[in-house]
Amino acid sequence: MDISTGEFLVLALAAALVGFSKTAVSGANTVSLAVFAAVLPARESTGVLLPILIAGDVLAVLTYRRHAHWPTLWRLFPAVAAGVVVGTGFLMWADDDGVATSIGAILLLMAGVTVWRRRLAARQEEAGGSVPAARWKAPSYGVLGGFTTMVANAGGPVMSLYLISSGFQKLGFLGTSAWFFLIVNSSKVPFSVGLGLIDRESLLLDAALVLFVVPGAWLGRKCVDRIDQLLFERLVIGATVVGGIQLLVR
Fold first, then answer.
1. At CB < 8 A and 24+ separation, what contacts does 33-39 make?
2. Which of 209, 213, 195 lies closest to 40, judged by CA?
3. In terms of CB atoms within 10 Å, which of 111, 122, 142, 177 comes out highest?
4. Taking the domains of the chain in order of start, what are their residue ranges?
5. Distance (Å, rounded) from C-alpha 168 to C-alpha 69?
6. Backbone phi and psi for residue 6, each to the nearest 5 degrees, phi listed first
7. Closest Cα to residue 112, out of 75, 155, 157, 79?
8. Long-range own/partner contacts, residues 166-170 (CB < 8 A, 24 or more apart)
């Protein structure tokens, strides 16, 4: 890939942000997604970004592996697998603009639903009641998460919203998210190779960029203990909205 020194440095900063998002504010790597898509051709950028995301997932698992909630993961995986298959089919015919618009609209919709349900829960709690768990939540978030992660590596915000809406605290959130994306992103590699999104040229660029994931992850781990739960949730939702808007207006 013919990129300039300046473009490489921008990609390096985006790679560092991947590490930060994996250990601090999940969903913030939608900014990295937008940067990679701006510097590289949009479809090819997903293939370059995937190994970098997996490197961040490995670091997150090493940091938060004991905090995962496995019943939640097993509940999500079947729907996510279906979403990955649908996303693979979508990539066979959709152009870059169609992919970006679809993902951006989904992220903004899910952010709106999450904020609405949390406000409804707060009002119900004040009234002495509770909001019943929605049976559709795990299957719908799972399918959307699988679809968005396959077509644009943008599953982070969808799954972040699911975990936030399920009441996860910071460490449980980060541990569950870490294992989820290590497993899901690794399973996407054969699909991406088959679609021609990962090849020798993209892996050479990954080899140079992956080193920048480590300092980003270290910084995220140092920062996460200083972020209170309410601010953490607002940052996650805010990063989702920003990522959705970026995809819609790119």
1. 33/152, 33/153, 33/154, 33/243, 33/247, 34/243, 34/246, 34/247, 34/250, 35/10, 35/11, 36/11, 37/96, 37/100, 37/250, 38/250, 39/3, 39/7, 39/10, 39/11
2. 209
3. 177
4. 5-249
5. 9
6. -65, -40
7. 157
8. 166/72, 166/137, 168/69, 169/229, 170/224, 170/227, 170/229, 170/232
CB-based contacts of 15-18 (< 8 A; 24+ apart in sequence): 15/52, 15/209, 15/210, 15/212, 15/213, 15/216, 16/212, 16/213, 16/215, 16/216, 16/219, 17/216, 18/49, 18/52, 18/53, 18/55, 18/56, 18/213, 18/216
How far apart (Å, rounded) are the C-alpha atoms in residues 57 and 34?
A: 19
Residues 6+ apart with CB under 8 A from 218: 19, 23
pLDDT tens-digit profile, the chain (250 residues): 678 999 999 999 999 999 998 988 776 677 787 788 778 877 788 889 999 999 999 999 999 988 889 998 998 999 999 998 998 888 887 777 777 677 677 767 767 766 776 676 666 556 554 444 556 777 888 898 888 888 777 777 778 778 877 878 888 888 998 999 999 999 989 988 988 889 999 999 999 999 999 999 999 888 877 877 677 667 767 776 776 787 777 6
The pair of three-digit structure tokens given for residue 245, joined into one six-digit string: 């808007």
Only one residue has tokens 């294992």, namely 179
Contact present, 24 and 235 (Cβ < 8 Å): no
Tell me the Ramachandran region of residue 97: left when phi exceeds 0, alpha when psi lies from -120 to 50, beta otherwise.
alpha
